[in-house]
């Protein structure tokens, strides 16, 4: 299987890593060499950790040897499946899929790891809606079980089957749902994180207390504010905007505090500061 990944950020790097772990031949692309170097360093660290715990088949070097890092989209020409994991912005993703539709071989499948953007709309931009699908991995990709598989309006059964098989080969559990804003995962998760942020804004409790209440009281592995920082506050805001606009209900209104923090450049773990400092 020739597997392509676009974007070497936290999601793209993780997807490339698990694809290589499962024996696929992987190409990962980003716009600048420095982003590729950063992504490669994160993958190396994760592989070393998994190896140390005896959870890796083969050596880290063997897995890394299956990943080609590139800045050229033309390197995707021969890929069977290409998963896009760039910034959560519909216009930017659509522009990329217009290009990919021209580059990737005609029977290649194009997939988006988008958290919330309509799959049907990106599928139209790609020019190959039957061979387009949502393949939504969870963060951190090497540790999380789920892949949410989202069919667009025109996605063929064959495409859904191939992507489901690829997700299983990557050691994940694929679960299918339909194309509605935020799908299932973020339609349910993100309003909870947004509400936790609203609690901070209204002074209901300190961030640490909110996180502790949800961890100890509901057995969540991370508190909602730690999780929002982990996902990225820019991504959380982008998802809330899609829910608000796409479902047309004010119950999905992004918290003004979330908006203000993103405006201030406090994006969570990736920028060094969000609700906590890193
Ligand atoms: C926004 C979207 O569109 C969709 C999304 O993805 S939403 C986000 C979904 N993800 C979640 O909700 C994650 C919630 N958090 C968790 O499930 C857990 O906290 C977790 C799985 C991330 C970590 O597990 P944990 O039990 O808290 O333990 P923790 O000690 O932090 O980590 C376990 C081990 O995995 C390791 N680890 C963490 N990330 C790793 C990675 N990427 N690769 C390899 N190892 C990793 C840690 O180093 C740690 O190793 P040690 O045991 O040697 O210390
Ligand atoms: N964070 C999460 O928990 C999850 C995120 N997702 C989704 O995955 C996607 C990526 O998110 P995530 O990995 O967190 O984001 P990151 O910010 O970590 O990475 C995004 C990557 O895409 C690059 N990029 C930005 N703009 C462009 C562009 N115009 N063309 C090409 N590449 C670009 C970024 O470069 P630069 O460094 O310049 O920004 C970066 O390398 C989003 O759609 C997000 O919604 C899905 C599941 C979970």
UniProtKB/TrEMBL annotation:
Site label Important for catalytic activity, positions: 136
Sequence positions that bind NAD(+): 7-12, 30, 88, 93, 115, 139, 270
Keyword Ribosomal protein carried by entry: no
3-hydroxyacyl-CoA dehydrogenase NAD binding domain ranges (all copies): 4-179
Molecular function via GO: 3-hydroxybutyryl-CoA dehydrogenase activity; NAD+ binding
One Pfam family of this chain: 3HCDH
Keyword Manganese found: no
Domain 3-hydroxyacyl-CoA dehydrogenase C-terminal: 182-278
A GO BP entry: fatty acid beta-oxidation
Source organism, top-level taxon: Bacteria
Enzyme Commission number, as recorded: 1.1.1.157
PANTHER family per the UniProt record, alphabetical: 3-HYDROXYACYL-COA DEHYDROGENASE FAMILY PROTEIN, 3-HYDROXYBUTYRYL-COA DEHYDROGENASE
Family: Belongs to the 3-hydroxyacyl-CoA dehydrogenase family.
Name this polypeptide is given: 3-hydroxybutyryl-CoA dehydrogenase
Organism: Deinococcus budaensis
